[in-house]
Amino acid sequence: MKNRLLLSICLLLLTGLVVGCSVSVDEEIKKVETAVEEAFTNKAIETNEKYEDFSYYMPTTMKIDSEEGNNNLIIKKGNQLFILFVNPNEEPNSKVMFESSGPESQDDLVVKTFEDQDRFGYIIVKELDKNLFEIVVGIGGVKMTTQTKASEILESAQQMMEIVASVRF
C-alpha cells in the first residue's frame, strides 16, 4: 500500500515537472513573438560594423567567427553560432527568403510575419529536439539563423531581429 502511494506521488511529481517545462516553452514562445515584433517596428539601432557592401549593428556580446563569401557572416556569442545572410538583390519587402526558409512544417512552433509600408519581416521557430530549437528571423533579403536551447529563445530572437533590422546597403 505504501509503495503504491509512493509510486503515485512520484508519478504526480514527474507529470508536474513535464507539464511545467512545456508551459515555460509555451510562455517563452508567446514572449518571443511580441519581442521580435517590437524589434521589427522600433527604429533600427545604429550600425557599428561594416562588411563588404553592407553595414549592420553588432551587440557587444557577439563577435565575428568567420566570413563566408560576400554575403554571409558567422557570428558567435559564447558557444552559440548565428548565420547572417544578406542578399542585396532582394528588396526589404521581398518574401523570397521567408518562403525559402520552409515555413509551415509540422516542427514549427512559431511562424509569424510582420509588415509595414516598406518591409516584410518574419520569425520561424522550429523544435529540433527536446531542448534544441532553430530560430530564423528576417526582413526582406536579410535573414539570421541560430540553434539554441529553450531558455535562450527570447534573447536570441530579439537580438537577431535587432541585427537584421539594422542592415544597411
UniProtKB/TrEMBL annotation:
<feature type="signal peptide">
    <location>
        <begin position="1"/>
        <end position="20"/>
    </location>
</feature>
<protein>
    <submittedName>
        <fullName>Uncharacterized protein</fullName>
    </submittedName>
</protein>
<keyword id="KW-0732">Signal</keyword>
